[in-house]
Amino acid sequence: MQELGLERFSNDVVRLDLTPPQTSSTSLSIDEEESTEAKIRRLISEHPVIIFSRSSCCMCHVMKRLLATIGVIPTVIELDDHEVSSLPTALEEEYSGEVSAVVPPPALFIGRECVGGLESLVALHLSGQLVPKLVQVGALWV
After folding, report:
1. Residue 43 · residue 36 · CB < 8 Å
2. ω into residue 106 within 30 of 0, thus cis?
3. Is residue 72 part of a domain?
4. Whole-number mean pLDDT of the chain?
5. Nearest to 103 by CA among 124, 120, 77, 85
6. Rounded-to-integer distance, Cα 34 and Cα 85, Å
7. What DSSP line would sit under 72-135, residue for residue?
8. Using one digit for the tens of pLDDT, what is the confidence trace for 110-142?
9. Is the residue at 6 inside a domain?
10. Count of domains forming the chain
11. What's the CA gap between 121 and 63, in Å, rounded?
12. 57 domain-assigned
């Protein structure tokens, strides 16, 4: 799994290395030349529920637990510091241009739409809108 840039940790977190390979190889992988921003956009489009986080982020842990309680296991991508700096550029459209500085992880996306951080997730849950949104994107079956 490590040759793919993935590492599995004991707390159900998969770490994906988004940095381009340093050596030039003759691999047929189409992602080899993909920028960090493009990878982030692709991951958002491929996963119904995805959290971008820093390593050992306590807020990400709380987000995962809340979603797991509801019955959803999100995809969690841990970003390095240099990858976090790519997050605002990748998220400008999703935040409707409201990004003024670095978007601090964790950043949650449900159905390609940026929900925001932990506070936004809890607000969505308390308002009764979280479960219908998860059902709508196919992340939860009721």
Report:
1. no
2. yes
3. yes
4. 75
5. 85
6. 16
7. ---EEEE--HHHHTTHHHHHTTTTTT---S--PSPEEEETTEEEESHHHHHHHHHTT-HHHHHH
8. 998 889 889 999 999 999 999 999 999 999 987
9. no
10. 1
11. 7
12. yes
Res 69: pLDDT: 94
Asked if 138 contacts 76 with a C-beta cutoff of 8 angstroms, the reply is no
Q: Name residues whose C-beta falls within 8 Å of residue 84's C-beta, 6 or more positions apart in sequence.
A: 54, 102, 105
**Bridge partners, 116 (sequence order):** 108
Q: Is residue 27 part of a domain?
A: no
State pTM to two decimals. Answer: 0.67
- C-alpha distances in angstroms, 134 versus 31, 96, 112, 124, 141? 29, 21, 12, 11, 8
User: Domain range for residue 49?
Assistant: 36-90+101-137
CATH assignment at residue 64: 3.40.30.10
* Angle at alpha carbon of residue 89, lines to 38 and 125, rounded to 5°: 95
Residue 107 — φ and ψ, nearest 5°? -120, 120
Strand partners, 113: 110
- Asked whether the beta carbons of 40 and 50 are under 8 A apart, the reply is no
Read off the pLDDT of residues 93-116 as tens digits, 9 standing for 90 and up.
Answer: 444 444 434 456 788 999 988 898
